[in-house]
Design brief:
With 187 residues, the protein is an all-alpha fold. The chain has one domain: Ferritin, core subunit, four-helix bundle (Ferritin). Helix content is 86%, strand content 0%. The chain is elongated.
Length: 187
Amino acid sequence: MSRSPMSYTRVIALSLAAVAALAPPAQAQTQGTAGAGDAQSQTLSPIDQQFLQDAGQAGATELAASKLALTHASGRQVREFAQRMIIDHTKLARNLDVLAKRHGITAPPAADSALIGSLQNLQGAEFDKAYIEQVAVSGHQKAVELFRKESESGNDTALKAAATKALPVISHHCEMAQQLAKAKAAS
């Protein structure tokens, strides 16, 4: 039992460190290299640019919502799922961030503020239900389709490979989310 609080503390600390490390430097770089960044980002096709934007926003939303789940959720299973999402989506975000920076895109996409705002006002079972439906299940279904589309139709070789590599992980998250939804519905 003493392991769980330590795990949550570690996850929160790592997540906050990752967010803090990415946000301020990215804003400074974007302002300082606007001309060079614009030229480089134009080398990506509109499909690839949209993928980076959508995948980045989906990941940022997943991270923000999962961090909320650590303190707002009532169910142990929901908190454990959220903890797993924080770990996996932090890795995914770092990988996509590296690829985006290669093309001069340095500003990290923002989370869906409307969704995060609606979750912030919920606690316990209400939070669990909304998080599972809107983030865990629906969010991962959309992400699976997004990453599948990029892996099949993307133009940038590195992005296409990253999407292909990430797709099994995101598909597994979707399966986990559906199992979590069934478990919560049964209880």
